Amino acid sequence: MADTLSSERRSWNMSRIRGQNTGPEVRLRSLLHRAGFRFRLHAKELPGRPDIVLPRYRTAIFVHGCFWHRHAGCRNASTPSTRKAFWQEKFDGNVRRDERNRSELVAAGWTVVVVWECELAADPDLVVSRLAADLRRND
Questions:
Q1: What's the structural domain count of the chain?
Q2: Structural domain span for residue 72
Q3: Rounded CA gap, 121 and 132, in Å?
Q4: In whole angstroms, what is the distance from residue 101 CA to residue 84 CA?
Q5: Closest CA to 58 of 100, 130, 107
Q6: What are phi and psi of 82, to 5 degrees?
Q7: Which sign, positive or negative, has the C-alpha torsion 122, 123, 124, 129?
Q8: How far apart are CA 74 and CA 122, in angstroms?
Q9: Domain for residue 42, yes or no?
Q10: Which one, 29, 31, 37, 132, has least CB within 10 Å?
């Protein structure tokens, strides 16, 4: 299926996609705060600038969008039908960067957690209870 939007409109749409303070990220922060966790945001000194950092637990949380970060098996991780080579290169680069950041954090002694956008949308309470149990177990 061809893109139904003009290139100008598509460009405008894409410019509105944020890299931080996304809806899922803000929602998870709210739920974690309500559960009693205190954290920092987008720690510049850590590889990948994790979305949420819990220094007390030495845990870095990334809230990943299924489309951009290629959530395996997720229906939201579709590939556009136009410019496939461009998109595949973009997605592969994102996945490589995610893995590099995760490896660097683990090597530095951090626990890395990835929360997927679809998991948070489907059952936010389950996501937070799982995170809380893991964090408290490692405390």
A1: 1
A2: 19-137
A3: 18
A4: 26
A5: 107
A6: -105, 150
A7: negative
A8: 12
A9: yes
A10: 132
3-class secondary-structure state, position 79: coil
Look-up of token digits 């598509």: 10
Q: For 14-63, what is each residue's pLDDT tens digit? A: 666 666 678 899 999 999 999 999 999 999 999 999 999 999 999 999 99
Cβ atoms 60, 111 nearer than 8 A: yes
Kindly report the pTM of this predicted structure.
Answer: 0.85
| The two structure tokens encoding residue 14 | 């894409």
DSSP state of 55: G
Q: What is the C-alpha separation between 96 and 134, in angstroms, rounded? A: 26
Q: What is the CATH number of the domain that holds 80?
A: 3.40.960.10
Residue 83's pLDDT band, with cuts at 50, 70 and 90, is: confident
